[in-house]
Amino acid sequence: MSELIPVDTQNFRIELDGEGIAHLVFQPAGGMPVTDAQGHRALAAVWPVLSNDPRVRAVLVRSEGKAFCTGGELAMVEDMLQSEAARQRVMQEARDIVRGIIDCEKPVISAINGAAVGAGLAVALLADISVAARNAKLIDGHTKLGVAAGDHAVAIWPLLCGMAKAKYYLLLCGAVSGEEAERIGLVSVAVDADNLQEEALQIARRLAQGSRSAIAGTKRSLNHWLRAAWPAFEASLAAEINDFAQADAREGVAAIKEKRAPRFGGSAS
């Protein structure tokens, strides 16, 4: 691995190897990667940098942790409950993450191990090619938290796995294994966990060795399907951010902290 592309966060690092593959690596190694406020900001800002860097031919997103990325740090979520400024900032960053991956001229590959939640799940599934360990767990936990599924799912899940499965998993917050995600079309391919990193790296190498213009043109054209879904994405994101100012979100966070089931809207205990 060669030089680093600087990022202002401890949540992930970016290394450029000798084949032109930029490795975006969630960390810490052996721990549970999350996105804190600084990391979320960095994740929003990094995609134009990677897209415009002539040294980069492909981007491989992977993790050195026990999980791929378990989503927003609780402190960041609690800040959103209290602060309108924080909600507006996170809303703009969420737009930039989704738009940045869609518009990135370089092919993006994700290697999904363990749990992928929140912003981590957004990156995992917005990647052009997603490789999941069969035992990975993909979880969109928004409605369990008491907020709308707004950070990527409305834009891409119906295109990947169809409306019926999208509603089933997004409304119920069910975990999708890597094996099931491949079966329903939510990820490109599922492999044994021991083979995950090598399989994703081989795909990244094939793309890095391909025609830049042909691959970029194909990605750009295909992603017009996602751009067509942008109004739905904006509606879901606005609903999510609005929900963070409501009582259900406060209850959802309290339930997480107290390790119990949430009691929304006066539901029975």
Automatic annotation (TrEMBL):
Q: Which PROSITE patterns match?
A: ENOYL_COA_HYDRATASE
Pfam families annotated for this entry? ECH_1
User: Under which name does UniProt file this protein?
Assistant: Enoyl-CoA hydratase/isomerase family protein
Q: Which family does it belong to?
A: Belongs to the enoyl-CoA hydratase/isomerase family.
Keyword flag Isomerase: yes
**Species in which this protein is naturally found:** Noviherbaspirillum galbum
Q: Which domain of life is it from?
A: Bacteria
Key words, A-Z:
Isomerase
A GO molecular-function descriptor: isomerase activity
